[in-house]
Amino acid sequence: MKRVLLAAALSVAFAGAAQAHDTHASCDVRSDYDLRLHGKAFVFTRDDGPARHVAIGGGRLFVDGKEVALSLEDRARVRRYEDELNRLVPEVQQVVQEATDIAFTALIEVARGFAQDGGHAALARLEAARIRVSADLAARPPLVFNGDVGDRVIEPLLAEFVPVVAGSAVSSTLAVAFSGDQARARDFEKRMDRMGDEIERKVERRAEALEPLVERLCERTRALDRLEQGLAVRVDGEPIDLLRASR
Q1: CA 208 to chain centre
Q2: How many domains does the chain have?
Q3: In 3-state terms, the chain is what percent helix, strand and coil (to 5)?
Q4: Which domain holds residue 144?
Q5: Contact 107, 161 (CB under 8 A)
Q6: Strands, DSSP E only, in the chain?
Q7: pTM, 2 dp
């Protein structure tokens, strides 16, 4: 089973890593399926079990290549499900872009704080990566259930840059501590205070603004889950179960 944290919730981990902001706007979505778009249709696929290939489009439901006959009530639910997905996808993309940029802002401010002590290379790498990741997300927008956010954004960012920034911090701190220069130590302490203030100023307000968007995404996934549970149609005696959202 895939356990997929909704994109926006992961902005908390980014900002929290930089000690910038703490929020509880998150939700948990579980799915056995990958999701992709095929034209205007939503296609859910998994490797095993019944209903390995489920497609929804134009108010119609297809399972393993065959259209499923729907009652009037189920057809209305499928149309509502499709409408919710159409609203959800661009919202996810918006939140992922903003959350990623918040993460880069926090990390760049930390790197900038140590740039005077030899951290210029880390700063340059972060600024270049920010441009690269933003362009990639615009060209290939992430979807909801297929691990795009974690695999393409969060894990590479954390793996590549958190050690770099942490290394700059440790080396700068040790260099100042062993220099015996009290004036340099005082200057370093003041820079660290300014860095903390700058991160809070640049990140906290944006993170707070993201919270209602995250909550809207959470409610939309819960609405999708409720619509699924209301479907009377069965496949091999089993209900359609594309996702499960935390309440």
Answers
A1: 16
A2: 1
A3: 65, 15, 20
A4: 2-245
A5: yes
A6: 2-5, 28-31, 34-38, 41-45, 53-57, 60-63, 66-67, 234-235, 238-239, 244-245
A7: 0.68
